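Final report, closing paragraph on structural work. Over the funding period we assembled a curated collection of sequence-structure pairs, and we close with a single example.
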Amino acid sequence: MNNNMYPCLWFDTQAKAAADYYCSIFKNSKITAENPIVVNFELNGNKFIALNGGPAYKFSPATSFVIECDTQEEIDYYWEKLGKDGRYDRCGWLDDKYGVTWQVIPAILPKLMADPQRSQRVVDAFMKMSKFDIQTLLDA
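Its predicted structure, as stored:
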């Protein structure tokens, strides 16, 4: 039994452009198959489908993709690349130029949040942030 799961991203007509865009940002990424309706691609080994489905549906922040980053340089990279021509929000959230929502977060955040002595200070710190700053969280 094959129970692989992966997201299908519904675009109006930009499936190929979006897949190319994402593959240019994420290392170890590639288009694996394409036709006029569907583009199959992988980002860092994670499977996706981009669908040219027409204008009936739009993306919303109700579904987002989380990118855990080990370093500030990684956060800065994804924040800049994915947010360009999109919209930046608070607490590491952004919408890319296609309207897909991403959360660019430090990988250490769950550990900091689990520490009962500092979790509230960490929350207070990141609630003031747009892009995450790892050092500010560590200092909280």
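The mean pLDDT is 96. The radius of gyration is 17 Å. We thank the funder for supporting this effort.
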